[in-house]
Design a protein that fits this description.
This protein is α+β, with helices and mostly antiparallel strands. The chain has one domain: 2-Layer Sandwich (Ribosomal Protein S5, domain 2), CATH 3.30.230.10.
C-alpha cells in the first residue's frame, strides 16, 4: 500500500498527516500521541481514531503541524487524520459526518480584523456629550 498524505487547516494552523502500514502508532510532530499535552487537545485528536476503532491497528500515522495555538493545531491534526482514515475506508465517511461535520470539512471561520482608528474589531468608542 502506498502512503496517504492529507492536510487539514484551522485558523492559521496547518497539519500534514501521512498514513503508512505499521503497528498503529500515532505521532504528532514526532512525539507519541500518548505524551501530547494539553489533555483536551489529545482527546480532540483521538476522536477520529476512536470512531475508526480497530481499523487503525495496521497503520502508523505521522502528523506535522505548525502555526496557530494548541487548540487550532489539535483541530487541524484531527481533520488531517480523519481525511487519511476515510481514504483507507470509505465507510467511515458517513460515520464521521454524523458524529461531527468538522472531522472532514474545514472550519473556515477566522478572527475579524480590527477597524481603522479603533483598537477592537466590533466595539466602537463611546461618545461623551458632556
Amino acid at each position: 500500500m502506498k502512503a496517504i498524505h492529507k492536510s487539514g487547516k484551522r485558523k492559521t494552523s496547518i497539519a500534514k498527516a501521512t498514513l503508512n502500514q505499521g503497528k498503529g502508532t500515532v505521532r504528532i510532530n514526532s512525539k507519541l500521541l500518548e505524551n501530547h499535552t494539553p489533555e483536551i487537545a489529545k482527546m480532540k485528536i483521538m476522536e477520529p481514531l476512536l470512531l475508526a476503532g480497530d481499523q487503525i491497528k495496521g497503520f502508523n500515522i505521522s502528523v506535522s503541524v505548525n502555526g496557530g495555538g494548541w487548540s487550532s493545531q489539535a483541530d487541524a491534526s484531527r481533520l488531517a487524520i480523519a481525511r487519511c482514515l476515510v481514504e483507507t475506508n470509505k465507510n467511515l465517511k458517513k460515520k464521521f459526518l454524523d458524529y461531527d461535520r468538522h472531522l472532514l470539512v474545514a472550519d473556515t471561520r477566522r478572527k475579524e480584523t480590527c477597524k481603522p482608528n479603533d483598537s477592537k474589531a466590533r466595539a466602537k468608542r463611546q461618545k461623551s456629550y458632556r
